[in-house]
Structures are given as structure tokens and as C-alpha cells.
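Milestone M4 deliverable, item 7.
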Amino acid sequence: MSPGSLWALNFDLKYRPPTRYGAWYVGGGLNLLGGTGGSDTNLNLLTGLEGRRGRTRPYVEAKFIVGGGSSFQIVGGFTVR
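Output delivered:
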């Protein structure tokens, strides 16, 4: 695939185990990776922390994409509710 035409879609589900603050989550899902040279389907495994108070909630997440295009990502940002 040409790097200039690469795209990806992620469909993930998150589960929050019962913890004291409820900030930690784990999850998994489907990753669709495509471009002009074809497409690939991979598995997502993820874990992260998300703030639980306020309208703007910071988060940090680690995601491992398992498959033909395996990769590891660490992302962070804000969720606005």
C-alpha cells in the first residue's frame, strides 16, 4: 500500500472492571486498514485510563494491533461530554 493513500477504521468495545475510581478500562475490537493496494483486517487489544469527573475528561490509551500490519500505539487526549 502506498503511504499517501493509507486509511484505518477501528471498532472497539471497552470494559471497566469494578475498581475504586473506575478510571481503568480494557478492551478489544476490529481494525480495518486499507489503501490503494488493498485492505487488511486486524485485531485490536487495548487498555487505558480515563478521568471520571467533569465535562472534559483526559485519557491515555495503549493499543496493540495484531495481524499482518501489527503495531503498537500510545495515544492521549480529551473526551468532551
